[in-house]
Amino acid sequence: MAETTIGENKKLTFPVKQSSKSRFAGKLRYWWSWFVAGSLLLIVATPSLIVLGIINRRMWLYPLAKWGARTWLRACGATVKVTGSENVDPNRSYVFVSNHRSYLDTATLFFYAGQKMGLVAKRELLKVPVLGQGMNFVNIIAIDRSNPERAMRSMKKAREVMDKGYSFGVFVEGTRAMLGELLPFKKGAFHLAFQTNSPIIPVAIRNTDWMMGKRTGVAYSGEIEMVLLPPIETDGRDPDTELMAVLNETRAAIAAELAKE
User: Model's pTM, two decimal places?
Assistant: First the structure.
């Protein structure tokens, strides 16, 4: 691991596994996975959006979206091993704070966290046909970090969703990290947790970087490991003085888990 210590909010680097399969096989699976994604959007999502919009039953898309997430993971050759589910009370709402190295992370957290889950996503996804329109149906909120006023409105919407009993998943690095990296955390998820008095569940996701990493152009089959770590309470803590302490505590928990690779 890099010389930066786990307790600092700076980039960390961990060892990366390698697939034993050929890069050609990885290319084939990569393009197959996006063919499946496109087919799901065109054949399943498009008519569903139209019909559910007409009858004003937008949230009926939610179970279909979860099915789509699992189907896509299977098409990518991914199986998922979840540990730490005992740390999540199904009767509480949480802010799930996760590292992010691959598109696989989003589907994994959305389907396997065991909660009714909303997600915070980058605004660029709004431009994707069908997907952009469907995001609003299933409480996936796009954050425009270049516009503080819009970002504040998005976080207000997230609070309203949590008030309805949903949890929220946030990839707090703000972008996908490169293979083996853990980037500095942004503060938005922690503001959301304090504003809703919600506990934070630190989430460490392993193996997705070598399975379908950023800028690799390949996808390999393998087992995704998602670890749900013990909750960190925010209720009763002062955000003005303790927000960074909670951020660093959360990051240290995730980094320590990733270091076990």
Answer: 0.91
Residue 9 lies in a domain: no
pLDDT, residue 35, reads 96
Task: Find where tokens 């961990």 sit.
Answer: 14
Mean of the pLDDT values across residues 246-250?
Answer: 95
Strands of 117-122's sheet in order across? 78-83, 222-228, 200-206, 95-98, 167-171, 117-122, 140-143
- For residue 175, the enclosing domain spans 20-258
pLDDT at position 5, please? 58
> Hey, is 201 helix, strand or coil?
strand
Output the domain CATH number for residue 59. 3.40.1130.10
Domain count of the fold of the chain: 1
pLDDT at residue 118, as a whole number: 85
Residues in Cβ contact with 257 at an 8 Å cutoff, skipping those fewer than 6 apart: 202, 204, 227, 229
Distance of alpha carbon 169 from alpha carbon 236, whole angstroms: 22
Q: Which residues of 160-180 are buried (b: 16+ CB within 10 A; e: fewer)?
A: ebbeeebbbbbbbbbebbbbb
Q: Is the pLDDT of residue 49 over 70?
A: yes
